[in-house]
């Protein structure tokens, strides 16, 4: 078995969609980034790549590569899963947390879990997504951005 940890953060900005865990969340702001800036997907991918000792998503999908501008992070996750599978590993489970003061995310959690499980080629029971506020503290509490953390357990195929 191998364990990996991932973290990502993006600034909230006007004129962008808010996509978390592959789900389009209705909100007046979205996350700024080279791809779709899906912090949850990015944290999960980083946890998988970390467990494989392959660095982070910036190494596989550089933010100065025009091919990844506006990229769908679920498609990028499928590529990460392909690398994982080629190396002889499979998802044991993923546990993740989104930190956002707003919007409230509870009604979207199941959809996020479904999208992530589909991209990872595993059962939804292997995917945990939680959301929390930071009680109006720090950059997420001040609604300047959203962050996410993830841990994964990989098992040998």
Automatic annotation (TrEMBL):
It is an enzyme of class 4 (lyase). Belongs to the IspF family. GO terms for molecular function: 2-C-methyl-D-erythritol 2,4-cyclodiphosphate synthase activity. The record marks 34, 133 as: Transition state stabilizer. Binds 1 divalent metal cation per subunit. Involved in the biosynthesis of isopentenyl diphosphate (IPP) and dimethylallyl diphosphate (DMAPP), two major building blocks of isoprenoid compounds. Catalyzes the conversion of 4-diphosphocytidyl-2-C-methyl-D-erythritol 2-phosphate (CDP-ME2P) to 2-C-methyl-D-erythritol 2,4-cyclodiphosphate (ME-CPP) with a corresponding release of cytidine 5-monophosphate (CMP). This is 2-C-methyl-D-erythritol 2,4-cyclodiphosphate synthase. Keywords: Isoprene biosynthesis, Lyase, Metal-binding. Homotrimer. Residues 1-154 form the 2-C-methyl-D-erythritol 2,4-cyclodiphosphate synthase domain. 4-CDP-2-C-methyl-D-erythritol 2-phosphate binds at residues 8-10, 34-35, 56-58, 61-65, 132-135, 139. It catalyses: 4-CDP-2-C-methyl-D-erythritol 2-phosphate = 2-C-methyl-D-erythritol 2,4-cyclic diphosphate + CMP. The gene is ispF. A divalent metal cation binds at residues 8, 10, 42. NCBIfam families: ispF. The keyword Metal-binding applies. The keyword Membrane does not apply. Gene3D superfamilies: 2-C-methyl-D-erythritol 2,4-cyclodiphosphate synthase. Its EC number is 4.6.1.12. Its cofactor is a divalent metal cation. HAMAP family: IspF. Pfam families: YgbB (PF02542). Pathway: Isoprenoid biosynthesis; isopentenyl diphosphate biosynthesis via DXP pathway; isopentenyl diphosphate from 1-deoxy-D-xylulose 5-phosphate: step 4/6. The lineage of its organism: Bacteria, Bacillati, Bacillota, Clostridia, Eubacteriales.
């Amino acid at each position: 078995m191998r364990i990996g940890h991932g973290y990502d953060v993006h600034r909230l900005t006007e004129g962008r969609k808010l996509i978390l865990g592959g789900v389009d969340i209705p909100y007046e702001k979205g996350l700024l980034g080279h791809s779709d800036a899906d912090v949850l997907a990015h944290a999960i991918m980083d946890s998988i790549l970390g467990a494989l000792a392959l660095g982070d998503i910036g190494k596989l999908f550089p933010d100065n590569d025009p091919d990844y501008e506006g990229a769908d992070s679920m498609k990028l996750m499928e590529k990460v899963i392909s690398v994982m599978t080629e190396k002889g590993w499979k998802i044991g489970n993923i546990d993740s947390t989104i930190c956002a003061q707003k919007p409230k995310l509870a009604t979207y959690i199941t959809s996020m879990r479904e999208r992530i499980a589909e991209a990872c080629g595993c059962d939804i029971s292997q995917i945990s997504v939680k959301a929390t506020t930071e009680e109006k503290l720090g950059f997420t509490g001040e609604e300047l951005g959203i962050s996410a953390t993830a841990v994964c357990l990989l098992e040998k195929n």
